[in-house]
Design goal:
The protein is mostly helical and 382 residues long. Helix 2 runs antiparallel to helix 3.
Length: 382
Amino acid sequence: MKAVLAKDLEQDAKLAKRTHAELCKQQRVFNARNRIIGGDTQAWDIQVHDQRIKEATEKARHETFAAELRQNDKVICILDDREKRDRKCLCRAISDFQQNCQKPETRREFDLSDPLALKKELPARQSDSDVRNTVSGMQKFMGEDLNFQERKKFQEEQMREWSLQQHREWERARADQKFAEDHYTQTRLNFDETASHLQKLESITRKAVCAAVKEFNRKQAMESAERKRQEKRQEQEDNMAEISSQLRGDLLSENPQQAASSFGPHRVVPDRWKGMSREQLEGVRLAQKQQIQEKLRLQEEARQRDLDWDRRRVQKARVALLGERRQHRQQCEDRRALDRSNLRLAAEQRLQCAGHGKKYMDEICANQPTADYFAQFNTRSR
């Protein structure tokens, strides 16, 4: 036989609810007598009502979950505190056991780290049981002491006592653990009973919350409708008052006095100013004409000043050109005079050379020179 789970039941309920809603919708849509053109207001109201019920149910379920979470947190805190207390008791028992039954004096190697070893030191080789007789001292060898049997028996008795003591402590710890487990089981049963009782109280509280939410939603709907009516009436009154104020106000009537500024008559309020008056426009045009005439006068003065500067610059250029031409003519005349002087000096020099040649010829003729000598003279003359 198959077991039915709560999840399966919930899914079947949702499926049946959806099927029923679909059938109701089909009856409303395909019924020509009850169908309303433009929208199904009844279905919309039902959907709004269902949505509000769903929201109230979700809110109550969330509050229930929150209560369960708080209860579980409390239970977890109690269990955590109990676990910490048990751990603390166990640590304290272990510490007490170590302090009472595992003292440093009972250790086998305590004589190696005894802080009072120097005070307890005895002369060398007092007896066979002297612990200071080491192997290097060669005072006593293994198995040659006189109290070997008594020492062995004492050690066996001591080991038996330790074993019995550990067994008793283990039995005691086991009994404590069993008592703690029984106490924990009883506490869990009490918690389960308390949780079932709280669950019943929660179901009762959920029903009361659903009824209260339904009543609250009905009152809220009535208050919302009344508030909307009041707001609509107030809005209409405000609109009428605003329209009357705008019609009688300075903004639409374009009163020029509303643009007057409190800082002086020459200033205006920009967001209220409707433009300049006819007198102000005439004054602006007159000022513009005066500015144009002043600008033309300044341009004429600048043009006359530029012409004057151009005339002066041309005169200076003409004077400079005449000076350059005069200087060039002077240089040409100086060059011609120098050339004539050079020609005159050259002619004088040639005449002097010709006079010296004639005198030398007379001397040669007197001395009857040879033909070779005349050839040499002609070469030098050249």
